[in-house]
C-alpha cells in the first residue's frame, strides 16, 4: 500500500516542524518547505532523514511551481497539504507602510493561494487541505491589524474552497492556534526576560492554564486529515486552550 503523502509549507520550524514529525511518525511521506537558510539547515538535523526538505519562498509563484514539480517527480500525488507558512509582526496602524502590508499579504494570502493552485492537480481525490489561521482573525488585538486581516482572509477562503472542492471529495479546513511557544515569539524583538514574562502572563489568561506547544497544533492537523474527520469540511478549529471563548 502506498504511503500517504503530505506537503507542509513553512515546515522547518515551530508548528510546521512539529507537524512534520507527527505526520512522519504516523507513516506519511513528508515534504516540507522553508526559505530561511538557518532553519532549513536546522530542520535537516532535526527531522528524520527521509523527510524531504525544499527551499522555497512561496510568495513567489515560480517557487510554488518548483514545489509542484518536486511533488510530480518524487511523490506523484498528495493526500494532505498543510498551508502553514506565514509571517506576522506587530505594528500600530500609523506606522504601517506598503512594504509591511505587502510582505504580510504576499506570504500569508498570495503564497497560500498560488501554492494550492499549483499543487491542486496533484491532490488525490479525498485529500485534505488545511490552512493555518489564527484566533486573532476573530479577536481584536491592538497592533495586529494587518496580520489578523490576512488570517481572516484565509478562514473565509476555507469556506468557499470547501464547497468548490467537495465534488472531488477534498476537504478544506483550518486550524487557528492561540498562544503557541514557537520561535515566532523571538521575532517580536522582545528581550528574553520580557519575552518570558509576557508568556507567563499570557498563560494566566488561557483557561487551560498554559501556553500551547507546536505538537498541540500538529495533532489537530493530523486529526483533520484523518478518516476520523472524514465528514468535517469548511470548519475553523481553534487550538488555543479555550482562550477564544473566555469572557
Automatic annotation (TrEMBL):
Question: Where does the chain cross the membrane?
Answer: none
What is the recorded name of this protein? SDR family oxidoreductase
According to its UniProt record, which protein family does this protein belong to?
Answer: Belongs to the short-chain dehydrogenases/reductases (SDR) family.
- A Pfam family this chain is assigned to: adh_short_C2
Decide whether keyword Oxidoreductase is in the record.
Answer: yes
Which UniProt keywords are present, listed alphabetically? Oxidoreductase
Taxonomic classification: Bacteria, Bacillati, Actinomycetota, Actinomycetes, Streptosporangiales
Under the heading InterPro entries, the entry gives: NAD(P)-bd_dom_sf, Sc_DH/Rdtase_CS, SDR_DHRS6-like, SDR_fam
Mind telling me which CDD domains this protein's record contains? SDR_c (cd05233)
Amino acid at each position: 500500500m502506498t504511503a500517504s503523502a503530505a506537503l507542509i509549507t513553512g515546515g522547518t520550524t515551530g508548528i510546521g516542524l512539529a507537524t512534520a514529525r507527527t505526520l512522519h511518525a504516523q507513516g506519511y511521506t513528508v515534504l516540507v518547505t522553508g526559505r530561511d537558510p538557518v532553519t532549513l539547515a536546522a530542520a535537516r538535523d532535526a527531522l528524520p532523514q527521509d523527510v524531504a526538505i525544499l527551499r522555497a519562498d512561496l510568495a513567489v509563484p515560480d517557487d510554488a511551481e518548483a514545489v509542484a514539480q518536486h511533488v510530480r517527480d518524487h511523490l506523484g500525488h498528495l493526500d494532505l497539504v498543510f498551508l502553514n507558512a506565514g509571517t506576522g509582526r506587530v505594528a500600530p496602524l500609523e506606522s504601517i507602510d506598503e512594504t509591511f502590508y505587502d510582505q504580510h499579504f504576499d506570504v500569508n494570502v498570495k503564497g497560500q493561494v498560488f501554492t494550492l493552485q499549483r499543487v491542486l492537480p496533484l491532490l488525490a481525490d479525498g485529500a485534505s487541505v488545511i490552512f493555518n489561521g489564527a484566533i486573532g482573525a476573530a479577536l481584536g488585538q491592538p497592533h495586529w491589524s494587518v496580520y489578523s486581516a490576512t488570517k481572516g482572509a484565509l478562514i473565509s477562503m476555507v469556506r468557499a474552497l470547501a464547497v468548490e472542492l467537495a465534488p472531488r471529495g477534498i476537504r478544506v479546513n483550518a486550524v487557528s492556534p492561540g498562544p503557541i511557544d514557537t520561535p515566532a515569539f523571538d521575532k517580536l524583538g522582545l528581550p528574553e526576560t520580557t519575552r518570558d514574562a509576557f508568556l507567563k502572563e499570557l498563560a494566566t489568561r488561557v483557561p487551560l492554564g498554559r501556553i500551547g506547544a507546536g505538537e498541540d497544533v500538529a495533532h489537530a492537523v493530523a486529526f483533520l486529515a484523518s478518516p476520523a474527520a472524514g465528514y468535517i469540511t469548511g470548519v475553523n478549529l481553534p487550538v488555543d486552550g479555550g482562550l477564544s471563548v473566555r469572557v
